[in-house]
Design brief:
Layout lengths: L1 E12 L2 E13 L4 E5 L6 H8 L7 E6 L2 E2 L5 H11 E4 L11 H11 L4 H14 L15 H13 L5 E5 L7 H18 L2 E5 L3 H5 L3 E6 L2 E7 L16
Parallel strand pairs: 3-8, 3-9, 6-7, 7-8
Antiparallel strand pairs: 1-2, 1-4, 4-5, 9-10
Length: 240
């Protein structure tokens, strides 16, 4: 699915050089359900942006589904990203002038999906994250947790083969964290979608089958995750 070799991302601030990702090799098989963990500044988000083709590496290579991404034109990269990758941003990146349903529809617009089909699929994605009743609300009318779930629905609406999620449960309470991970695990099991989740939450990492730990832009460890049983306690409620 993804093969990254010798991956480096270096930022220069004045005379200072920051190695956000420093010679990293990683192989992610199709159908994996993994978490990427590590302290702040370890390179987790940078790595996710590189794997999601949102940023270009300083050096090294990334291959997705057998395609060397360095050999693709900007137009081909955009098409690959739109058709195969769903991204959950840490900052949500919802458009304030659009309601929840319209925000979820956006990736389908870029794929030229007809209007009625866009609406149907967006509402189905919102239903998966229990937000159908908030479909007509704009981001400013939603809580942080609700905005997070809209962002997750937007990432899932195109039914991508690869979902890259940057702290997808960061704004959620324990119950909704459990429900979101349950949704992702069910999709992974039922559809074979690949999930790579950046998280600071040990509970989220414990739900995955593989845990990749970063430190100083390198892989510190790569081990099997416990894939803990999911027991979502509805008593925890929702963040409003």
């Amino acid at each position: 699915m993804i093969v990254a070799s010798g991956l480096r991302k270096i930022y220069r601030v004045g005379s200072m050089e920051i190695k956000a990702v420093d010679g990293l090799d990683i192989f992610i098989e199709a159908g994996e359900f993994l978490s990427i963990v590590g302290p702040s500044g370890s390179g987790k988000t940078t790595l996710l942006h590189l794997l999601g083709l949102l940023d270009a590496p300083t050096s090294g290579s990334i291959s997705i589904d057998g395609m060397d991404t360095a050999a693709l034109s900007p137009k081909q990269l955009t098409r690959l990203r739109r058709e195969k990758i769903g991204f959950v941003f840490q900052e949500f990146n919802l458009l304030p002038v659009l309601n929840a349903r319209e925000n979820v529809e956006l990736p389908l617009r870029y794929l030229k999906v007809p209007a009625e089909e866009r609406r149907r699929r967006a509402l189905r994605a919102l239903e998966m994250v229990s937000l159908t009743d908030r479909a007509d609300n704009r981001p400013g009318q939603l809580s942080g947790g609700e905005q997070q779930r809209v962002a997750i629905a937007r990432a899932l609406v195109t039914e991508p083969v690869l979902v890259l999620a940057d702290e997808p449960t960061g704004e959620l309470d324990t119950y909704n964290t459990c429900k979101v991970i349950e949704l992702m695990r069910d999709l992974n099991r039922d559809t074979g979608q690949t999930f790579a989740i950046v998280t600071h939450d040990p509970m989220v990492a414990d739900y995955t089958r593989r845990i990749v730990s970063l430190r100083d832009g390198r892989i510190a460890s790569d081990s099997a995750g416990p894939e803990a049983a999911l027991e979502c306690d509805a008593g925890a409620g929702d963040i409003r």
